[in-house]
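Hi Y.,

Following your request, here is the sequence exactly as I used it, all 674 residues.
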Amino acid sequence: MMPDPAVPTIPTPEETKKREDLSAFTLNLLKAMLKSGYYAPEHPGSRNAKEGLFKEFLTVIEGKEELTYIRREDRVKNDVVVEGFSDDLLSLSSVITMGASELFIPKFLEYFARQNLVSFSFKAEITQSEFEKFVDIMSETPKKELGKEELGQALTRKILENDIVHVSTIFDVDLIGMTRKLPWRVELVITRLKKDLSLIPLFRSYKKEALEETKAKVVGDIIRPLHDSDTLKDFLVNCDLVCEDLKNIGQLDIEAQVFESLQPGILIKTVKALQDEFEKSQALLELSEDNQVARVITERSRDLLKKVSARLVRDSIPEGLSILLSLHSKEILSMADLSEEARNVVIAKKMTDGFLKDEQKFLEGLKTVKDGGVLKRYMDQLLRIMLELFERDLHVSGLRIVNVLFDLSEKRNLENELISEKYSQIILPRLKHGFLSAPKEAREEIARTLIRFGNLSVPYLIEVLHESEDKRVRNSASTALAAIGIQAGEMLLKELTDTKQPWYFHRNLIGLLGKIKFAPAVPVIEKYAAHEDARVREAVIESLALLRGHDAEPIILKALTDPEAKIKNRAFVLLKSLKCSHPLFVRHCLGIIARREPHAEEENEEIQLLACSALSVMEGMTPELRAEAEETLRKAVEPEDKSMLKMFKKKKWKDKSPKVQAAINDILTKLGTR
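Below is the corresponding structure, written out as tokens. Let me know if you'd prefer a different format.
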């Protein structure tokens, strides 16, 4: 149901001026209608009452199609509503100042009641002559002997006699006696449309050859303000009432005109509202077969949905596919009514159901196809099944089809259609979607299939790194990219140059570029060596060790002084693996092992053993460095004084543990001093 006029928000200065113009015009219009009634139209008093009024109207109507005043009475509030001035219905009480509205609105309502008037509309094309004639007619004091019905008919007759084409009126007598319970807004629209169409042939200016154009304009003017999908739905379902008893007007197809006039967004909302109405009325009919209103609404809704489907098919409107499929499932549309895309989906659903009954039999049968041409002809159907399986979240079943096709192409040396642009652009987005949403087992299966697509998969896996908040999913994507290898290098490097991405994205890319040994990435990776996040810095030294080997030692050596212990330890391990013999690293290791005074802090046994291990594999130390190492190591294991005097001496050194002593002795043996 159309909501009552909303209370407006605080208007802009421009809007305030427009509302002031509307308020002034409306007040003067009512004054003219009330005052003119005292005089004949040609009397100076009547002319003075209308002086400048049309000019005020032109100011208000500028940029608009029409201006309508509606009597609105209910249990809560009596008011006059304006339509056409803004996008929504506007209450006059929200436009006119409070003091004026308390006096003015009751008089306006009194005027409506005296004339048995429900609404009147000025169209933008109205001439000054038509406007002033209408004011004169509506100013006349109703004859007491006329009843409500006769008064409305008499005023309508005068409007026709004066050929006032660009004003539309609804009197109480015009309201259609509804057997269907309708919202007041819809009832008013249907009433006005029926009356305006019925009057077309009666105007003196009517031209038969322009009938179709005139009808279309009348319908367009009346339905234009309808922006709400529920109101549009109610109007469409009940607009058959417009056609009742209309003669000399020819064929009407109001529904088609409405459907053609709607923008895609509101069209889709209206279609969904029609679907809901169909289901609701169908449910009521099942409860009571004698419910005639429900029967009419069900049939009307069905016919409308069938009619609107033609536009959904023709214009390929977004969301149209799902609606067409839904209507087909409810048996409202036949296969012939569907778009080609929708028909393919329906066929795929049926084929998928067949596939799921015996997957193994289906796949074994596929493997027996020996003719490459036959296999290619099957491709479209097979991929429809695969996409439908993905739609049902049956990822593993869908992947079986893809992998069988890969296997067949490889075994028979066929041109691999799967990696063509046509098919890869269909398959890969679905694989990516599954990768993001599927459980771990299915994700691992999807990853293996993505690897088979090679570099075509890289953009989609990078998107996963961007989009997923799940660390496990990102790790799986990184593993797949690493398996694709050097083919992924250029795209990964391009992404790494975007410094605005989150730290974990950079960390993953840096690690990947190192794993795939993509040498051109080195200069870019080095720029991240001082990154604020320790995990990125760790990835940098690991990747550079893989990419540059010994040439990466200077940057890794700097990491030995990193404030994060984890980075220092990682740098230590990497330098050991490189068998680094740089003096800085040698002295770093010796510093860990060197003998400490009793009060000094000493590295734990594990770290000392690691330093010993690093020294034991070093190659190429200079003679000077070798001598320095021997001296430090010998002092580290030098025994304490065991003489009787020991008890009188203060302990000078900390003793190394037996394991560390053994490791140091092994190094000294290799150096030739043991």
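The chain has a mean pLDDT of 85.

Thanks again,
Q.
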